[in-house]
C-alpha cells in the first residue's frame, strides 16, 4: 500500500470508528432527550482537559445510569463522557493532521465529517421507527436499546486499532527544521507529566494569537448552533402539541434529516476541495446563508415559548401555521450549514497548525464546548426568538472573522511565504 493510500485508509477507518461510537452516543442522547442537565454537563466537562478509547467505557457507565435514571446519575455520567471526549477529540484532530498534507486536508476533513455524521442518520432512524407513537418508554425498551449500543460502541473501539502509522514524509509539517526534529526527540524522552505541562503552556500561548482569537469567534458560533440543533430544536418540535401524536417521533425524524444535511455537506465539500480555487470562504458563506434561512423559517414556524414549554407541551401559535414539513426541512438546513462550518474549521486548523496540532484542536473543542454549555444554560430561560438572535449575531461576526484569517493566509501563500507563518 502506497503512503498516500495508507493515509486515506487511516482517515476512512477514523471516520468509520467515530461513526460507530457516535451512533451509540447520539442515540443515547436521544433517549435522554429533554433532560438538559445531561447535555449541559456533558459539554461543560468535555474539553477542560486535553490529551481514545476512553469514551466507550464512559458510554457503558452512561447506559447503566439511563437504565436506572436518577438526577445524580446524569451528573456522574456527563463527567465521564466529558473526560473521555477530551482525549478522543484531541487525538482525532492530531490523527487527521498527520495523515493529511496541504492538498488533502480539505478532502480528508470532508470524508471524516461525512462518515462521523452518518451516526445521526442510523441512530435516529432506529428511534423514529422503534418508538413511533409511544408516549412512555419502558425499562425493557431502554435495556434493548443499550445492549445494542454497547455492542456498537465496542465495534468502534476495535476499529481504532486498525489505524496505521503513516510515513513520516509528506505529512503536514514535513518542512520542520532539524532543530525541531531534535526537540521532538528530546520531548519524547520526557515523562508524561512534563509533556502535559508543556502542551498546556503551548495551548495558553496559542490562545492569544491573532488567528486563534479570530477563529475562536467562529468556533463559539459552532458551539451555540450545536446546542441548538442537537438539543433545543428537537425539544421545540416535541413541545408543539399541534403536531399531534407524531410530535415525539418527529424528534427522531428531525435528527435523521440533520444527519442527511451533515453527510451531504461533508461528502460534497470533500469531493470538491481539490478543485476549489476560491479557498474556504465560499463554503463558510454558504453555511451562514443556509443557517440564516433556517433560523428565519424556524422563527416563523415555531411558537416562541417552545424551548421553555412544560412537559405537557405548548398550544401557542406561531407566525404561520406550524408545519411538520417546514420543521423537518429546517433540520436538513441546520445539518448542512453545520457541516459547512466544521469541515472548514477542521481544514484550516490542520493547515495552520500542522506542526503541533494537538493544542490547536484542544482550544477549538474547549471554546466550542464552553459555548455549547452556555447555550444549554440560557436555553432554559430565553424564548425562541432571542436564542435565534444570539446565533445570528455570533454567526455574522464568526463568518467575518473566519474570512479575515483565510484572506491573510491566502495573501501570504500568494507571496510564496510559509502558510503556517501567519
UniProtKB/TrEMBL annotation:
Annotated TM spans: 12-32, 72-91, 111-131, 143-163, 212-230, 250-271, 283-302, 384-405
Keywords on record: Glycoprotein, Membrane, Transmembrane, Transmembrane helix
Q: Which family does it belong to?
A: Belongs to the unc-93 family.
Q: Which Gene3D superfamilies does UniProt cross-reference here?
A: MFS general substrate transporter like domains
How would you describe this protein's topology in the membrane? Answer: Multi-pass membrane protein
**KW Flavoprotein (keyword) present:** no
Annotated compartments: Membrane
PANTHER family, A to Z: ET TRANSLATION PRODUCT-RELATED, UNC93-LIKE PROTEIN MFSD11
Write down the InterPro entries for this protein, in alphabetical order. Ion_channel_UNC-93 (IPR010291), MFS_trans_sf (IPR036259), UNC-93-like_regulator (IPR051617)
- The protein's name: UNC93-like protein MFSD11
Asked whether the UniProt record includes Ligase among its keywords, one would answer no
